[in-house]
Amino acid sequence: MLVLLTTGMGRWPIIRELAWLMGKIMEGIYYVMSHFFNVENIGACIIIFTVITFTLLIPLTIKQQKSSKLMAIVQPEITKVQKKYQGKTDQASQLKMQEEMQAVYDKYGTSMTAGCLPSLIQMPFLFALYPVIQNIPVYVSGVRELYKPIVDAITATGGYQKIMETIGAASPILMSPDTFDYTDSTVLTNVLYHFQDATWNTLLEEMPSIGSVVENTRASITNINNFFGVNIAETPWSMLQASLHPMAISGIIAAILIPVLAGLSQFVSTKLMSMTQMQAQQDNKNGNDAMGNYMKSMTYTMPLMSVFIGFSLPTGLGIYWIASAVVRCVQQLAINKYLSTKSIESIIEENKKKAEKKAKRKKNSVSAETINRMATANTKNIEKSFVMSEKEKEEKIAKAAEYRKNAKRGSMADMINMVDRYNSGQVEPPRPVEEETEEKKDKKRKK
């Protein structure tokens, strides 16, 4: 089920496009490593890929940390305003509360969404990483080419679809035929990428004719998937269950260590990330205890979840978690050192300057204050603005009469004048048109 979820992420809008972009980066890394350094190892590519990706996200991370440090001071004042109007549901009170809250945000040069916006921007990128790492052959053509001889041999075997659907639907692959098309070579490649030793044996039992092709190709496949004795396409839990088959002790230890290290690195990363906000709350006399307790609980809960999930997901994702946590720890140490040199006052000043620039760009737009004033305007005052005095009425009537007097022939005003003259008896009504006689028709034809 977890495999299906992570695979399905790559099909969502935006995530699909970002996964394609991330896949191109991964493909570039694999190409450089294999052609220039003669290293064809997906585990090493995942680590380099993680370092590059999180390095590109550093500006958003710094912005998020600044916002978190600032919100630790802003939030207590916002809470005071909310308590002040607690229980007041009338429109006037709600508008007043919104005005006072906005005044607090303006005071510190921030906004309600400033803290969460950088995180929301990062989330699609982080989600896009999972389908790429989960399905390397789909995004990296160099890896996909290694599986091509086996895929060709399988598709040339009679009844291959039913055999592959049965193998793919079973554990540890869990790719249901209802969701995946087993006549697609890309799907078959992805299924083979998640094969374990026992799965290969099952395939050879069902298709003994492809044994020589598998034997010639499997060495290269094992080499790119091997990371310190661990097959990154396998899950640590399945490795432990299959520990009776010949396998190096170091591989079993690595299979256990990867989820554990993922949890420990996650703990350290979360701890460092919360230091900035916790320090800001300590400096602030009105610190939010509830927020502090929440951060403490997340510090211990998230690593435990990482350990549990790490045993269920392929080892490649565990390697990614460890690498990402280590990269975040290094980044966080550098960011904490950078933020320690910046006072709250300087951050507020920077935010205010940015807010002023943004306000200049929106100079021609209608302000929120104007919209509120228009929304709460008295309709009686609006109606009064449309009432004309007697003098204004006389002036408009005189202008209309003057316009009709000088109306052009055939215009609408001229037609109105004709109707007025007819109603007043000044002109005779138009005579009916006489029917043309045959004699008149002959004269017209001669002309």
Descriptive account of the structure:
With 447 residues, this protein is mainly alpha-helical. It folds into 2 domains: 1-361, no CATH class; 400-429, no CATH class. The protein is 74% helix and 1% strand. The protein has helices at residues 2-9, 15-36, 42-56, 58-84, 91-108, 117-134, 136-139, 141-155, 160-169, 185-193, 197-206, 211-225, 236-241, 249-283, 289-310, 315-340, 344-361, 368-375, 379-384, 390-405, 412-423, 438-446, and strands at 226-227, 230-231. The chain starts with a helix and ends with a helix. The model is unreliable at 1-10 and 378-386 (pLDDT under 50).
Summarize the structure.
This protein is mostly helical and 447 residues long. It is built from 22 helices and 2 strands. Helix 3 runs parallel beside helix 16.
